Amino acid sequence: MYNNYYVSVIIAAAGMSNRMGSKINKQFIAIDNKPILAHTLEKFEQCQYIDEIILVSKEEEVEYCRKEIVRKYGFKKVNKIIRGGKERQDSIYNGLLALNEKTDIVLTHDGARPFVRIKNIEDGIKGVLEYGACVIGVPVKDTIKVIDESKGIHHTPKRDLLWAAQTPQCFWTHLIKKGYEYAITEGIVGTDDSSLVEKMGHEVKMIMGNYDNIKITTPEDLIVAESISKGIDNIYLSKEFLFQGR
Ligand SMILES: Nc1ccn([C@@H]2O[C@H](COP(=O)(O)OP(=O)(O)OP(=O)(O)O)[C@@H](O)[C@H]2O)c(=O)n1
Ligand SMILES: C[C@](O)(CO)[C@H](O)COP(=O)(O)O
């Protein structure tokens, strides 16, 4: 369906893992006996519409990624492993500079989100064809408070319109490149890629994802991750029994 387009994904894996507090890059920690980063890459390798993967890693981990992740698990679509930058935004920018010149559509994804589903990837590509730019995400479950500097609650936004942004975030190549160039010119730093395109005044659509597409950030996430990898589908299978058909 999307084979007329050359689709590249930039996988950001060059972070510091500060909040995880691990001695090694959190993406090399094993879940279900396989490194988190290998779980992540596997999903894009298996998606028939992905043509190339640009892996962004810390300079000193490029060789480790090549040998212990890409070669060991036999990923064929990883065209380049390049070094990242200080912030996630810098790492993705390096990825944009390394794209194949044929690239029509760019997806950005966190190496630390190993439970992305092939359906999320396909929905993201479809979203680009329909809207030009889209983000996979989920409606928030908690009530969100906006606070001031002294932790006083400033206001409580209406929850119906609040969604948590995940990755992949998906764009026409020219649009995301323009967003990043605009951010450099204007000195904008965002915590995701979509916000840079939004700041330019271009609409970005939200596409329903899955709650289990978690970003592994703190140690508790590893416990949740082991459970997810054991099979969220099994939880749904037993739902009728657990919740008596509710
Ligand atoms: N300079 C950076 C910072 C982050 N990332 C990547 O972006 C993703 C999301 O970032 P996050 O979960 O915040 O990872 P870290 O930056 O490693 O975490 P922390 O902020 O706790 O150090 C991760 O896959 C991370 O490796 C990156 O490629 N380059
Ligand atoms: C891109 C992202 O995963 C969307 O939720 C998130 O913003 C990354 O932020 P982090 O500060 O690098 O964890």
Automatic annotation (TrEMBL):
Pathway: Isoprenoid biosynthesis; isopentenyl diphosphate biosynthesis via DXP pathway; isopentenyl diphosphate from 1-deoxy-D-xylulose 5-phosphate: step 2/6
EC code(s) of this entry: 2.7.7.60
InterPro entries reported in the protein's UniProt record: IspD, IspD/TarI, IspD/TarI_cytidylyltransf_bact, ISPD_synthase_CS, Nucleotide-diphossugar_trans
Biological process according to GO: isopentenyl diphosphate biosynthetic process, methylerythritol 4-phosphate pathway
Family assignment from sequence similarity: Belongs to the IspD/TarI cytidylyltransferase family. IspD subfamily.
Site entry (Positions MEP for the nucleophilic attack), positions: R159, K215
Enzyme class: transferase
Catalyzed chemical reaction(s): 2-C-methyl-D-erythritol 4-phosphate + CTP + H(+) = 4-CDP-2-C-methyl-D-erythritol + diphosphate
TM annotation in the entry: none
Protein name listed in UniProt: 2-C-methyl-D-erythritol 4-phosphate cytidylyltransferase
Cited Gene3D superfamilies: Spore Coat Polysaccharide Biosynthesis Protein SpsA, Chain A
Alphabetic keyword roster: Isoprene biosynthesis, Nucleotidyltransferase, Transferase
Role this protein plays: Catalyzes the formation of 4-diphosphocytidyl-2-C-methyl-D-erythritol from CTP and 2-C-methyl-D-erythritol 4-phosphate (MEP).
Record-level Gene Ontology MF annotations: 2-C-methyl-D-erythritol 4-phosphate cytidylyltransferase activity
Record site: Transition state stabilizer: R19, K26
Database matches in NCBIfam families: ispD (TIGR00453)
Domain of life (superkingdom): Bacteria
